[in-house]
């Protein structure tokens, strides 16, 4: 007996834009960092590396923050849960001691990305990625 496929719920315009913005942002981060893991230094293919967050949460003001997201290998991002201690040290080295605190504070805040914000993020990323 074959079971019917569950119906897919349609995504809202905002959710589609959010998904597109994240996809473009992830590609931009991995390209910017040339496939080099921010936490362990391993070199990987841009297509197979991750864009790993220091602080997590899709509804935070730092979700699309370039200081909060860097290229990471699968081992560091997935299996070591972001390798956060090393990630923090590297953020402090690269951006200064207070930057880690700013990102952690931002992770405690809630931010709802509006359609206009997401459209602006996408347009900015098109420019950074050289898309038309």
Question: How would you describe this protein?
Answer:
The protein has 132 residues and is mainly alpha-helical. The protein has a domain at 25-116. Helices cover 48% and strands 6% of the residues. The protein contains five helices and two strands. The protein has a two-stranded antiparallel ribbon with strand order 1-2. Helix 1 (13-32) packs parallel to helix 5 and helix 3 crosses helix 4. The radius of gyration is 17 Å and the shape is globular. The termini are far apart.
Gyration radius from CA atoms, angstroms: 17 Å
Largest sheet: 2 strands, antiparallel
Question: Which class best fits the helix and strand makeup?
Answer: mainly alpha
Oligomer: single chain
* Tally of DSSP β-strands: 2
List segments where confidence is low: pLDDT < 50 over at least 5 consecutive residues: none
Question: What's the SSE pattern?
Answer: HEEHHHH
* β-strand amount: 5-15%
- The overall average pLDDT, rounded, is 94
How many angstroms does the end-to-end distance come to? Answer: 49 Å
Residues in helices, as a percent range: 40-55%
Question: Can you tag this structure with a few keywords?
Answer:
5 helices, mainly alpha, 132 residues, globular, 48% helix, two-stranded antiparallel ribbon
Write the layout of secondary structure elements.
Blueprint: H1 13-32, E1 50-53, E2 69-72, H2 74-79, H3 84-95, H4 97-107, H5 115-129
Antiparallel strand pairs: 1-2
Helix pairs in contact: 1-5, 3-4
